[in-house]
## 1
Amino acid sequence: MHDTAISLIELGAVFFGLGILGRLAWKIGVSPIPLYLIGGLAFGTGGLIPLHGIEPFTHLASEIGVVLLLLLLGLEYSAGELVTGLRRSWLAGVIDIVLNAVPGALVALLLGWGPLGAFTMAGVTYISSSGIVAKVLGDLGRLGNRETPVILSILVFEDLAMAVYLPILTAVLAGVSFLGGLTAVGVSLVVITLVLVVALRFGKYVSALVDSPDPEVFLLRLLGAALLVAGIASELQVSAAVGSFLLGIAISGSTAANATRMLEPLRDLFAALFFVVFGLNTDPSQIPPVLPVALLLAVATCVTKVLTGWFAARMQGVGRMGRLRAGAALVARGEFSIVIAGLAVASGAVPGELAALATAYVLLMAILGPVAARVVEPVARMFLPSQAKKA
Amino acid sequence: MDVTVTPLPGLGTQQDFTTRSGHRIGVITYRDGRFELIVSDHEDPDKVAASVALTTAETSTLANLLGAPQLVALLNEQQSEVAGITTWQLSVAPGSPYAGRTLGDTEMRTRTSVSIVAVVRDGTAHPSPRPDFQFSAGDLVVVVGTAKGLRAASEILEKG
């Protein structure tokens, strides 16, 4: 019983500490993700509280955190929105991939981490944090701006790209051959197409499976379904995250809205633990050596995201200022970069420094992103001639 | 009017149009049923200068304010042939003695000889209201009559 007491005290201290960090984050107007990572790093050194009795729990909880992160991401969009988003913004989406995946891949190759490391880092630098971006747009009152639909459709495209990328990543990290990798790609593409078709045609039946007027039953069914699908998906080498993302897409309409409301607090809880565990597993002494590289990468991928937004917004006929706003809004990277790095590091197929680089990079980008979105207009006004009328 | 409908993936829908003065005006309807009125910046039409969150009751009040003038303008246009007759819109303010009482109670026709042709409530016009029509605060009353009668009618709705 004594052990339980210790575990409870440790867990309580962790949660309470995260609560303080989260409060601090919103006070200074940044996302709490970097602070959770720092919290994890601090615990990991054995500096504050050595956490021993709770590893099994935190490990599983961080897995559940990933599942819930992706499930809610899927719930956010209806299948119809995904399809129209894909049709509307595929060109911008492709530009986004090329501009933002390349810097990460290049850096990994230069550091000698091989093709696997390059493939992982490509994902880390590519994907914007839809959570941070949406929050920043809301906070700055820019949801009615003409560039906002452009930003949102790029985020939709990125999430779909994730659904293709994650299974491939899981497959190549598991060390399957080139042919096996191709099979994984084929399987995942077929599965995604199937899910989209099912969601478009029979979304209401999937929703009916989990829906219940009783909140308690609804929550249990939702969680049960999510973990079942995630487990089966990872057994099939499609990765748990993708499984839950697809389940999220398949659940639609009012069920999805209720599910989001219900799961949000749970997601926040488990996702916070996921970031902490990632920080715990990262050796802080590895961060200073990779810091210059992380800084370089941060600056480069700030520029590439701004360019992405610029091009995408220009295609929709948005003026110059709006193009810059679109670009700056996309700068933030966060939870999904860490999910990707976490998958890679857990497989042991990439060097441990990758975790350190990803951590340092996300720390920079999660803080830089909201700042960039805020300062882009005043800065642009200094350089651009006034009256940025429609170009 | 050319209303543009833009889906905002994950959030809702935005409907807007551009005014002759070069502003973009519109409404964002969020999935959770919230509304937001948006007005674009004059310098940079891509940017929103103001976005105001509105409750359902507030949207209908706004629709009221915008809906009644149109009706008044229309009636005025129709009666422009008749000399000395105009159309006004009077409001039943909160605290008006007739808020919550019927049209018959005002004895408007007897006292001022103006006609109440419509009452606009929650953005919809109720044409030719009967004497048992019950006013409520916030209603806009569209009245037709001589200038003198209209002034008297306005007094009545305000002070009883």
Note: Chain A touches chain B at residues 76-77, 81-82, 84-85, 130, 134, 141-149, 152-153, 155-156, 257, 318-319, 321-322, 325, 387-388, 390 (CB under 8 Å).
## 2
Amino acid sequence: MTLRQKHRRETLRNLAFLSPWLIGVSVFFLYPLVSTVYFSFMKYDGFTPPTWNGLKNWQYVFTDYPFFWPALRNTLWLVVVMVTLRVLFGLGIGMLITKVKTGAGLFRTAFYLPYLAPPVAATMAFAFLLNPGTGPVNNILGSIGLPQPGWFNDPNWSKPALTMLALWGIGDLMVIFMASLLDVPQEQYEAASLDGAGAWQRFRFVTLPNISPIVLFAVVTGVIQTMQYYTQPLVAGKVASGVIGSSGQQFEPGYPEKSTLTLPQLVYHLGFQRFDTGGASVIALVLFVLAMVFTGFLMRSMSERSTA
Amino acid sequence: MTATAITSAVPLTSAARTARRTRFLQWVGVHALAIAAALFFVLPFVFIFLTALMSDQQALTRNLWPDSWHWENLRTVWETPGFLTWWKNTLMYAVLGTALTLVSSIPVAYALARFSFRGRNVVLMLVIATMMLPPQVVIVPMYLFWAKQLHLSGTLWPLIIPMAFTDAFSVFLLRQFLLTIPKDYVDAAKVDGCGDFTALLRIILPMAKPAIAAVALFQFFYCWNDYFGPQIYASENPAAWTLSYGLESFKGAHHTNWNLTMAATLLVMAPVIVLFFFAQKAFIEGVTLTGVKG
């Protein structure tokens, strides 16, 4: 076999192994992405043939569509508050579980299980738990004399309620932090103790530098997840507003007062409820750009980790 | 404490006693904190369970504990028209989706982990990019494609068929695992006259069982939990609804009945919880693999 034949055989083999992905990425990613760009410049309701619309869809979304800026603001709020708390809380639980000696398996299961709860079921459960009138949480808060917020029915409390729901499902982060904490070389702690370092100093100068790549990973994936945040805010808004179950046609997204709107919801609202394919495509492209920017950060953080 | 042990001028017994007391207090503190945290994670399940077994009237009150246990609520939910269909649909989506994902993703992951070729990094970057992309980015043209050209809206096929062409997360997770298998195994097999495909099938697959189990579980739960996909493709046809999508409409039909809604919620969560207890290790391994060994 000549070198050239060998090379050709290898190429064929690579193509054969990769073919499912090659077809998949072309048909289900590249083709629709190009179509989205195309539709963002067209006027199209999904029925009559598309016509050229120039930049009008873009102009509409950024200036006249009343849901765009609230959705972007909510995303920013969720990124700052929810992602920060998730990382801090996940790290806290991860550290706690590495210290637990008795019943560690039981605790780990308790912390991990909510992560697996189907998002719709978990959101419905929280809508019930945080139900202002009869829900157990306000019930308990009332009985110990604390204020009882309106949670998913109050625009000031709906995002904190979503944050609690997100903190409940922290199991994945707990596991990741736990694994990385167990990887920190024990000798470094011993050396620090010999130098007279207290608990905080050991955390600050030993733990944190060792796990900082994981913290970065958790932050970036958290931001990317927030860009995709869809089911929980939508279902929470629907249950709280009481329009659930119908086709959703009359549902004003973001209940209460646009406080649970996120960008992915707008794609559905414009594209599938208002039949404005052009506007929906603009939102989709905004989402695409945001997701890709943070994916870039993610890849950089991952390559830093593998070379470190 | 270690410092005391070194500069120990005081009698050893007293130092040892102090150390032991500190350790004991630490043990109590850590466990108290863990119990407090565990309550936050467990109590929601407890309240869901208790409410699911209340009577209709009691579920409207502020009582936390059922006056009488209405186990028949679970049966009522189970016999609600449609519920069984949603189960069957969800199971079909999850089982077929998982099977197709495994068959299509394993060879791709293997090629990305083992073969060196031009453009490999580009492929890997594209895999990560598609993994991180919100599904809404491409949904409008995808819906038009399935509905207008293939006339498959109102079914779950637009969600199942693409899995025969890999799933980015699964490819990524499998590749991460395959990288940890030493090359020598395959090289030895090749010396014995194995082709690439046979080597993958006979040598690598048995070794990659934990990763394959993790991918299968994640994919199964992804399908089981998926809300957006069924909302887009199946919402127009109630016969094609899945549990996640149907659960929401269930609340609509039983507007005030939190007891039945929570009973339905329990029934949707149950398979996930049961499966977890059978496959804890695979889960933990999968999460660690994607998160830590970047």
Note: Chain A has 13 helices and two strands.
## 3
Amino acid sequence: MEEKPFTTSSYREFLESGKIMANRCRSCGNVHLPPRPICPRCGGRSLEWMEIRGRGTLQAFTVIHVPPTRLKGRQPYATGIVKLEEGPSISGLILDVKRGEDIDIGVEAEAIIVREGDGLKLCFRLV
Amino acid sequence: MGLFRNVAVVGAGMTRFHNRIHAGKTGRDLFVEAVLEAVDSVDKGFELREAEAIFIGNYSSDCFEGQGHTAAMMADWLGLTPRASTRVEDACASSGVAINMATLAIASGAYDLVIVGGFEKMTEKGTEEATEILAMASDALYEVPVGFTFPGLYAAIATAHFKRYGSSWEELAAISIKNHRNGALNEKAHFQSDIMETARRLGERHNMTFKDELEFLRSPLNPFVAYPLRLFDCCPISDGASALVIASSDIAKKYTDTPIYIKGFGQASDTFSLHNREELTELRATRIAASQAYKMAGVSPEDIDLADVHDCFTIAEVLAVEDLGFFPKGQGGKAALEGRTSLDGEMPINPDGGLKAKGHPVGATGAAMAYEMFKQLRGEAGRRQVDDAEIGLTQNVGASGATVVVQVYGR
């Protein structure tokens, strides 16, 4: 596992095995999700894999009523940005929410990896 | 940081921005139309063939029209081959960035006279497909697959801004009302009726009456696009083109007695995905691009008389007027609600109707903002003229703020 390069395909392979993997800069400690080859904070290139537990709080959200073509028929659906306990934030579909009035920033969220078609989607369930 | 030599706008033109009147025209038809108007606007006369190079902002004629390599195509259609022609793609900031590139090309001494502009022919596709194409300017791996659209990203920013500053959708509505009011005074605008007039017209069709704008904007006739943003918080999908003739300051007076100088400019990038930003309630790239432009122009926010800012969604105008330093953080929406950013307010914002009412053919937007400054600073803006307009600013944003370009114009 430690040998994998810090690429999109590595991130996807980890998701396939049920893991959300970030990487951490050995120089400044910054954590990156999705993983990337150069630390954007210090420019460091010495990085290590780090597993994300998937717990965090909702930082921003929306409920989409006009979807792009590929999500046609699914609206209204919620999507948002979750700040994870380990530091980084990530976008994900928010499951089981159809009205913006029903959710608020700051609520706790838990990540779930959902298979849709031939791809994997990072989703969150509010707890 | 200074330029080797200064640069001025000596002519400007644009098509009307609209979703229907350009049916049957192509991007090249629109761009040629805008360029010819810019050429004809030069006071002391200008032959298109005097232009030495072309810079064109265009986001995605590839997807919208199935036409790539549009810079060379436009050089040919303008009768300007073999001159260098360059396309700039920075999403919705494409022609704003093209202006910086063209300015640098003249400032370097490489050219004296350049055509710069932009175009987008968007309405060949339906709304859902256009939404999909526009979403390509955000992160196709980590934002789009989990359902984010452009309105969605700005809607998320709005929820964070509301939470942090106690700002509200009513403040956003005030921006929409103001910009439609301004658009009604602009013969080039996509929408040329104020919201009350629209409410009456739509109301008649649905047997509904509205006592004021807010009642209409809260009604089912203004449905959610991406909560908390409704239809009238979003700019329309428009076709259009815009163009400028720019010249080195050494020769500008040969073409007009009132050139409009590009006094300062800046450009900055930010994290590509919104979720990687440390702060969701500001566009850091706006602050940085603006500080560069202010420094080059030797001005501060208090010196700016009017501004065209990138209100692709009403919340974006809130961020812009705060991040440009016109109003304190959290106060941008209130400023609109209190009339401070109206045409007759202390700091008129988007006198041309903004993207909201003027329309947003994405590649054409940055140069259309420059067109407005050219008209305003020369006192030629007609019914929407801002009094004593001497220094104007434009702010043009790509996607959710991963690119921002700012220019300061003056007489």
Note: The two ends of chain B are 21 Å apart (CA to CA).
## 4
Amino acid sequence: MYLAANGRPDAPPRPPGARRRVPAAVLALGAVSLVTDVSSEMVTAVLPLYLVLGLGLTPLQFGFLDGMFNGATALVRLLGGRLADRRGHHKRVAGAGYLLSALSRLGLLLAGGAPGAIAAALAADRLGKGIRTAPRDALISLSGPPESLGRSFGVHRAMDTTGALLGPLAAFAVLWATADAYDAVFAVSFCTGLLGVLLLVVYVPATPGPAAAPRAGARPPRRPVLRDPAFRRVLYASALLGATTIGDAFLYLLLLRGLDLPPVLFTLLPLGAAAVYLLLAVPAGRIADRTGRRGAFLLGHCALLGAYALLLAPVSAPTVAGVLTLLGFFYAATDGVLMALAAPALPAAGRAGGLAVLQTGQALARLLGAAGFGAAWTLWGQRPALWAAALALAGALAAASRILPATPPNSSAAPEVP
Amino acid sequence: MNPPSPRLRLALVVTAVLLLASGSLGYVLHARHRERPPAQGSDASFTVEEPGLYFRDSAGGRIARQDGPGRPRVTGGPSCDRFHTAGGHALCLRSLPGVPARTEALVLDRRLREVRKVTVPGIPNRARVSASGQVLSWTTFTTGDSYNTAAFSTRTAILDLRTGYLVKSIEQIPLTFGGARHHDSDVNYWGVTFAADDNRFYATVSTRGATHLVEGDLRAWSAKALRENAECPSLSPDGTRVAFKKKVSDAPRSPWRLYVLDLATMREHPAAEPHGVDDQAAWLDDATLAYALPGRDGRASDIWTAPADGTGEPRLLVPGGSSPANVG
């Protein structure tokens, strides 16, 4: 079954300079992510209110429920990647993850306020999210020619972010229409989630792009991660840089503090950064494809360093716009680009597992970075902590530019391109 | 399995969208027309002049009165999520519909007519009126203050009816720990209780992961920490003791027990309540505490009472009630 228009072995080479179409599978996966994010962000937006206001949980109990499964997702992600690599069942594993998350809304709806059932539903949601991420990114990376991966991931992330922005709006619309019926939010989220699963089943090809489709029955490499030095370098660099990011919430908090803005804005600032991310994701991916993903990835972190520097200067109204723009650019130039940077270094049969290792490593490093910054803030105060973070990031950037392979990794994967 | 033709796929998706959209719409419409108790004002005959125990009736969310143990309930008060009354004034906290969460703090006179209305961000949490009825305080839970976005923080307001002066958040009050000024971005106050002079007050402050009982002075606008691990204080009518909830375990189910602290000796003892209490207790008289516990038999909450000296047994006072306030 050759559904992807691009990279067909028998397809004639396209004339240079012609605008290539984004692979259909990437668009399909983007649509699935968009719809699924509407569904999940709807629930995320109202869950604290529902649990505390609707069910009367104490904030302590809420915090416990909310934080309970965060650690487990990292492990589940690795598992999802491994499962997908075995016999190349990316679509099935991703689909199971999407379905599990959709069903978790039904669980919230039927739990009727029993804390045990709510905890189970939240666990199912996190489980689903953990399982699907790596196979999905592997599918994206396998669906198009390696030289346009940056754009593919850019398109996917832009669609994904659109869904994340629409979700809370949808939730508030439902709450407004029903005078605070939280169960209606769960019901609508469930239906939206099912639609996402259906889009995946119908429109995403079962076998990833033919260019790199692993043979059915092919076993994943035993240690795909440690074998390839190019991938290992990407992993180390991303973890190092991740450990020096302080977490968006801290940046927003510094903005609010600096300008003495009303706390209501705390919920709006992330929207600003997400909007910039949405606008820049595709262009950043294209530029990364053309001029090198390594440079784009490092430049993205330079933008983050710029945001730190802006916050070290006296905060004024334009600072808010500047920081949000830089933060949005940081995500646009690093999130999908990192996947595009790493994917060609991984063998197709071990790609989902490898990407899972990369994502988990980065997430853990970021967790460490945020915790470290929180500790520094408490110990030394806000400004010295920010100075320390800026210096650490600058050091990490210098180190990462040495660690990251100098030649674009996609050239090393050239033999895979037909 | 052969892939279905593009036409078939499109038909499938369109059908599914129609089905799921109509399902969503149907549920929203159903939820919209569902019976839900609307927020109500009080009946003309219901006032807070009569002696008795006032409380929130969990069944309808309205305030009711019980004139004595075993006596019938008098209903017809306003709809409130949290309620307190003393000295001819009542404070009614009501959560407003919509997102983000907001709370309406209604100050009512003895005939439950509106004196003042303040809208603040957050979810209703604690409400207190001083014995004279002149100074009021309320606490709401808010999201979004904390860098851990999922966590809640509190916001406590104090309203002085004598001057009309309202402090929407007392977070900026100069706070001292053992004589030294305490500065931190994470201070949170909740659960204020007033002394008879309408000036001194007690409250909880949380900072750097610990909670403290603080004593505050309204006129001097200062507060000092007295003791660690004491939340939601409630001053006895004679002003000698503070009932509070003490964190005794890390279990999220029932971390708190009800304790009483003697302010002269600073010695504390537990009340004879074996269950976890997450409420600001109310003193029925100088010897008796009342507080809400999660309800039995499917009720949202029940009001229990226990002797303040740690003796005796807890007793069920009002099934299906919360926010007790005694008017003598």
Note: The radius of gyration of chain A is 21 Å.
